Amino acid sequence: MAKNERIICQSDDLVEGGKGVRFEVLLETGAEPAFAIRHGGKPFAYANRCGHIPVELDWQPGEFFDYSGLYLICATHGALYAPETGRCVTGRCAGKGLQSIPVCEHSGKIFMTGEGESSE
Fold first, then answer.
1. Which CATH number does 6-118 carry?
2. Which residues are paired to 35 by β-bridges?
3. What is the pTM of this model?
4. Is the confidence at residue 116, as pLDDT, over 60?
5. 12 φ, ψ to 5°?
6. Which has fewest Cβ within 10 Å: 42, 82, 103, 107?
7. Cα(29)–Cα(110) distance, integer angstroms
8. What is the tens place of the pLDDT at every residue in 39-56?
């Protein structure tokens, strides 16, 4: 594990298109809720904050994907986000995306590797 990496979860905790893992991250606004998911065989992580209004996305704890398992969905107003980029693909987010959290996977674990950055 590199010096700036922080363990989020075990690799097996993230199932393709399945339930995500919630965690906390320090952003420019302070400590914020975040989540990690698996899509296309890779882990991705985002601040748990809709691009439209600052509400958490999950409709049940850890449930971020829509029923198809292809898009992340905001439980408040139904905006859909591409899981591999965090970009808004439809909804009231006016082109604003999710704030990405850099992650990597090795040694059977998912690690946060740095600070968050916007996907706008």
1. 2.102.10.10
2. 22, 46
3. 0.90
4. no
5. -65, -15
6. 107
7. 24
8. 999 999 999 999 888 899
pLDDT at 28 over 60: yes
- Residue 97, classed as helix, strand or coil, is coil
4 pLDDT more than 70: yes
- Domain residue limits, the chain: 6-118
Alpha-carbon gap, residue 48 to 5, rounded angstroms: 20
Residue recorded with tokens 């990496």: 5
Cβ contact 82:94 at 8 Å = no
- HEC string of 13-64 equals HCCECCCCEEEEEEECCEEEEEEEEEECCEEEEEECCCCCCCCCCCCECCEC
